[in-house]
């Protein structure tokens, strides 16, 4: 069967007869069990959260550049909604802490992970392995709804008395418990309940993904014929499955600390404002950190692996070459999966856990950089000698490589115990992980949106708007995050609401950079406008795809009708070859789809 | 296309979808309880040495009722056996035996929860009293002539609450001091079960055996409650399969048998958690 031609109507019609009932609005859009609709639900919801998280940080950035000045445009609104903490439209210290905590939480748990795993994983994985749907469609639906309501709980926490969580996205104890000790039902408690809901959601998702990939691969789809994207999702699934439950346990324990005044994470003799806290004590704040970072570090790879998967697909497709070192990339991904469970305490060098423990985690941290570099190298080498098509998805995919590279390499000094002591909790850390996640992961995901949009809608996204989006985002991101390394090395702490004006060590350069970073933030915000226009306009006005496989891709997701119907494939796909047979010598076309008979 | 392998095993893995799913789910459950057990170990290791309640903050030992715990372990293991027998009965096409074994399983499950709640109540009505003179004891409390009743959360007292309610004195019946190994038993029995009156001003700490009292109680109640919720959830699922859900036996016996197998796997896991929990919390 040739994938380059549109499927004849008769086949599609036959398929429609098979599932003759036409679902109503609620069944089709809200309580859908179809992996594609759930993927789109995840995608739109998480993009909304991404925008909201970005809004929060823009308020913070404005405050950093202009301490004490009212927020333009949105200041009045914030005051009307949040009351005294935003008096006169000025971000107070308390509100700054809240926004910081919620920016982190929303970006990690409600925006990037759901977009990378929930949206792309859901939409693309079953298509790429040749499956009609996920293994457990109803669990899939439950997973989305839990995610949605967990997110709603998090947002609702802005409106409880005392405001939302303000103890950072890491929710460190004892701060998280004592911040509002008198009122047990506070923003932090809602944060914890929301988090437990989100963890349950991702647990259901992970079980579903792994089962689907193990059980529903099409005939002939052996493990080493899986597209790299599927491998990335597979390992991500295991990370979510095994790393999240300890945080769920920790969340339950901290919830008990907040609601029942237990002392799991409260040490002996805790004194607040000169008064001893009326709790039994005997707990350990370090225990929280261990449990949190046991999730926290695998979570980093949950953020990055799906983006690597997306980028690999796009690079192979647009260089018209097989991925260089596909197998080593697969093994590297598995090694990352294993190693990511034994590096967590490199976030805790400054806690005084002891040099021996630090040395162990420093060693494992250096080890995990090896497979990461392997993947990045393989992707770089894949470019070599290709006739590269510079379309929008490819531009984002290409930018991912150096951006993630910078993010990864600047992480090495943080992985070393000795240099981390100086850099810890400075703006250097912020620069480092944002390079990994923002121009790294998010660029990878943007690439994926531009790449699979034609499959979802039957139309391309606008190339012109896409390129404006790309170039200004790239410039904006670098102008934001690169100066943070300088600020961090100058010793600027990451938690100062006034941007360091009261910090004796902050010199003019660091303070000037605060302003320039904020201007770049505005540029980045403006650069997203063409993207938002593009994503909605192109549904109606975008250029129509010529056939079901407009990019000339090899993987099975392009062997479906456009957009794929319920059940995905018109006939059972059979796989005969590896995932990236581009430019095979002697072949008529420059690509051999996986389901093309030899 | 329909989703394949919903109940027929996939040839190369030899498993149907739900079986892969439940094993993965159990893996994550191991991580969940693993984290809680690790927390237990860490909290216990860093507690000060000594004998509780004499040494404040030391790890209490021997507070839990071992005979009852042992009996409850037996109850749960029995239910684990009967759930396998129920599955085997289905495999042998004997639906009546299946239902009989399921009923036994359910009786065991709710029996376990009943016994556990009795144990909980024993703790909620048991108190630690610490006097300003340094004397410390455990026992039962009488406030205004009343003993706290069964599952009566409103009558759990602590010092702050007594002060707020302007109670001036309490009666306290201390537990008999446990004889150390080798000591004679006679001395301790003499002054047991005598209620003594203490003025509130002499009391440094008074609290029931509830979560806030001590990290031991906190972790004990959190782990056993979470385990209890698993028992309850498993029992509800098994109950559904035993009665309303069993109509599937007629329409698709193979899938129904698989469902019992999957639910049974979860049930064994719940049992297994208890088998670790019992020695760690009760015996060690």
Keywords:
heterodimer, A: 598 residues, mainly alpha, two-stranded antiparallel ribbon, disordered N terminus, B: 284 residues, alpha+beta, Four Helix Bundle (Hemerythrin (Met), subunit A), 5 strands
CATH fold descriptor of the largest domain in chain B: Four Helix Bundle (Hemerythrin (Met), subunit A)
Biggest interface, and residues per chain? A-B, 48 and 41 residues
> Which sequence of strands runs across the widest sheet of chain A?
1-2
Count helical runs of chain B: 8
Q: How would you describe the oligomerization state of the chains in this entry?
A: heterodimer
Major pleated sheet of chain B = 5 strands, antiparallel
Overall shape of chain B: elongated
CATH class of the largest domain in chain B equals Mainly Alpha
List the helices and strands and how they pair.
The complex is a heterodimer of chains A (598) and B (284).
Chain A: H1 9-18, H2 25-30, H3 35-65, H4 75-82, H5 93-129, H6 137-156, H7 175-178, H8 187-215, H9 228-259, E1 271-272, E2 275-276, H10 285-319, H11 326-339, H12 355-383, H13 392-409, H14 412-415, H15 417-423, H16 427-457, H17 463-489, H18 508-541
Antiparallel strand pairs in A: 1-2
Helix pairs in contact in A: 3-5, 3-6, 3-18, 5-6, 5-8, 5-9, 5-10, 5-16, 6-8, 8-9, 9-10, 9-11, 10-12, 10-13, 10-16, 11-12, 13-16, 13-17, 16-17, 17-18
Chain B: H1 17-45, H2 66-91, H3 95-124, E1 127-131, E2 136-142, H4 159-164, E3 169-174, H5 186-190, E4 195-199, E5 203-208, H6 215-242, H7 248-251, H8 253-283
Antiparallel strand pairs in B: 1-2, 1-5, 2-3, 3-4
How would you describe this structure to a colleague?
- The complex is a heterodimer of chains A (598) and B (284).
- By secondary structure, chain A is mainly alpha-helical.
- Chain A has helices spanning 9-18, 25-30, 35-65, 75-82, 93-129, 137-156, 175-178, 187-215, 228-259, 285-319, 326-339, 355-383, 392-409, 412-415, 417-423, 427-457, 463-489, 508-541; strands at 271-272, 275-276.
- A two-stranded antiparallel ribbon of chain A has the order 1-2.
- Residues 1-6 and 8-19 of chain A have low confidence and may be disordered.
- Chain B folds into 2 domains: 17-123 and 214-283, Cytochrome c oxidase, subunit III, four-helix bundle (Four Helix Bundle (Hemerythrin (Met), subunit A), Up-down Bundle), CATH 1.20.120.80; 127-208, no CATH class.
- Chain B is 56% helix and 10% strand.
- Chain B has 8 helices and 5 strands.
- Chain B has helices spanning 17-45, 66-91, 95-124, 159-164, 186-190, 215-242, 248-251, 253-283, and strands at 127-131, 136-142, 169-174, 195-199, 203-208.
- A 5-stranded antiparallel β-sheet of chain B has the order 4-3-2-1-5, with no helix packed on it.
- In chain B, a hairpin with a 4-residue loop joins strand 1 and strand 2.
- In chain B, helix 2 packs antiparallel against helix 8 (253-283).
- The model of chain B is unreliable at 186-190 (pLDDT under 50).
- Chain A binds chain B through residues 131-133, 135-137, 139, 203, 206-208, 210-211, 214-216, 241-246, 248-250, 252-253, 256, 260-264, 268, 278-284, 287, 291, 294, 567-569, 572, and chain B through 1-5, 10, 13, 15-18, 20-21, 24-25, 27-29, 31-36, 39, 42-43, 46-47, 57, 160, 210-215, 218-219, 222, 226.
């Amino acid at each position: 069967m040739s994938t380059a031609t549109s499927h004849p109507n008769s086949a599609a019609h036959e398929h429609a007869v098979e599932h003759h009932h036409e679902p109503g609005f609620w069944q089709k859009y809200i309580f859908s069990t179809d992996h594609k609709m759930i993927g789109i639900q995840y995608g739109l919801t998480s993009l909304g959260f991404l925008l909201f998280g970005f809004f929060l940080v823009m308020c913070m950035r404005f405050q950093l550049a202009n301490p004490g000045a009212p927020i333009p445009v949105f200041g009045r609104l914030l005051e009307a909604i949040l009351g005294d903490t935003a008096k006169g439209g000025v971000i107070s210290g308390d509100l700054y802490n809240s926004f910081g905590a919620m920016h982190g939480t929303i970006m990690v748990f409600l925006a990037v992970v759901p977009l990378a795993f929930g949206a792309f994983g859901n939409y693309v994985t079953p298509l790429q392995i040749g499956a009609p749907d996920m293994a457990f469609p109803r669990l899939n639906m439950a997973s989305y709804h839990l995610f949605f309501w967990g997110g709603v709980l998090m947002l609702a926490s802005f409106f409880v008395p005392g405001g939302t969580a303000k103890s950072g996205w890491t929710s460190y104890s004892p701060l998280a418990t004592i911040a509002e000790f008198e009122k047990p039902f506070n923003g932090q408690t809602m944060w914890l309940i929301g988090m437990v809901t989100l963890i349950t959601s991702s647990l259901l998702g992970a079980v579903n993904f792994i089962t689907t990939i193990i059980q529903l691969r099409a005939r002939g789809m052996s493990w080493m014929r899986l597209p790299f994207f599927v491998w990335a999702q597979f390992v991500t699934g295991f990370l979510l499955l095994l790393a999240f439950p300890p945080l769920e346990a920790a969340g339950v324990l901290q919830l008990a600390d907040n609601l029942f005044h237990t002392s799991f994470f409260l040490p002996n003799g805790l004194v607040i404002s000169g008064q001893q806290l009326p709790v039994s004590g005997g707990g350990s704040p370090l225990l929280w950190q261990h449990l949190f970072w046991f999730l926290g570090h695998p979570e980093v790879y949950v953020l990055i692996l799906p983006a690597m998967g997306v980028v690999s697909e796009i690079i192979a497709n647009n260089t018209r070459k097989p991925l260089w070192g596909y197998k080593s990339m697969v093994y590297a991904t598995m090694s990352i999966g294993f190693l990511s469970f034994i590096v967590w305490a490199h976030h805790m060098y400054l806690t005084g856990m002891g040099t021996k423990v630090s040395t162990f985690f420093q060693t494992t941290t250096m080890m995990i950089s090896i497979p990461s570099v392997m993947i990045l190298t393989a992707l770089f080498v894949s470019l070599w000698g290709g006739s590269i098509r510079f379309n929008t998805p490819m531009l984002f995919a290409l930018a991912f490589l150096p951006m993630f590279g910078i993010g990864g390499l600047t992480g090495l000094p943080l992985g070393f115990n000795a240099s981390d002591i100086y850099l810890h909790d400075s703006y250097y850390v912020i620069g480092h992980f944002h390079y990994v996640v923002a121009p790294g992961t998010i660029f990878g995901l943007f690439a994926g949106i531009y790449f699979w949009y034609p499959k979802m809608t039957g139309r391309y996204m606008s190339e012109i708007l896409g390129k404006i989006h790309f170039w200004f985002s790239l410039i904006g991101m670098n102008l934001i995050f690169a100066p943070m390394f300088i600020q961090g090395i100058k010793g600027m702490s990451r938690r100062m609401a006034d941007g360091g004006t009261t910090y004796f060590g902050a010199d003019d350069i660091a303070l000037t950079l605060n302003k320039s970073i904020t201007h770049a933030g505005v540029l980045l915000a403006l650069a997203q406008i063409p993207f938002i226009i593009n994503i909605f306009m192109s549904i109606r006005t975008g250029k129509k795809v010529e056939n079901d496989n407009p990019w000339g891709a090899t993987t099975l997701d392009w062997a479906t009708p456009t957009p794929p119907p319920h059940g995905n494939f018109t006939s059972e796909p059979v796989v005969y070859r590896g995932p990236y047979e581009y430019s095979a010598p002697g072949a008529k076309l420059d690509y051999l789809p996986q389901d093309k008979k030899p | 296309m329909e989703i394949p392998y919903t109940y027929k095993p996939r040839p190369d893995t030899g498993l149907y979808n739900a079986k892969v799913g439940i094993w993965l789910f159990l893996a994550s459950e191991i991580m969940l309880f693993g984290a809680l057990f690790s927390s237990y170990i860490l909290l216990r290791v860093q507690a000060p040495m000594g004998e509780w309640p004499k040494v404040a903050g030391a790890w209490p030992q021997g507070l839990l009722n071992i005979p009852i715990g042992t009996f409850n372990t037996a109850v749960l293991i029995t239910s684990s056996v009967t759930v396998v027998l129920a599955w085997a009965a289905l495999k042998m096409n004997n639906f009546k035996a299946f239902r009989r074994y399921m009923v036994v399983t359910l009786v065991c499950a709710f029996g376990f929860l009943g016994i556990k709640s009795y144990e909980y109540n024993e703790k909620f009505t048991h108190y630690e009293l610490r006097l300003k003179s340094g004397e410390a004891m455990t026992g039962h409390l009488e406030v205004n002539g009343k003993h706290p009743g069964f599952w009566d959360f409103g009558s759990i007292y602590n010092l702050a609450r007594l002060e707020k309610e302007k109670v001036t004195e309490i009666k306290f019946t201390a537990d008999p001091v446990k004889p150390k190994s080798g000591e004679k038993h006679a001395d301790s029995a003499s002054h047991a079960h005598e209620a003594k009156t203490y003025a509130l001003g002499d009391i440094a700490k008074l609290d029931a055996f509830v979560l806030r009292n001590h990290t031991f109680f906190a972790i004990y109640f959190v782990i056993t409650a979470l385990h209890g919720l698993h028992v309850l959830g498993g029992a509800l699922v098994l109950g559904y399969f035993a009665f309303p859900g069993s109509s599937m036996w007629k329409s698709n016996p193979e899938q129904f048998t698989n469902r019992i197998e999957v639910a049974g796997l979860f049930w064994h896991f719940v049992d297994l958690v208890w088998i670790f929990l019992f020695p760690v919390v009760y015996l060690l």
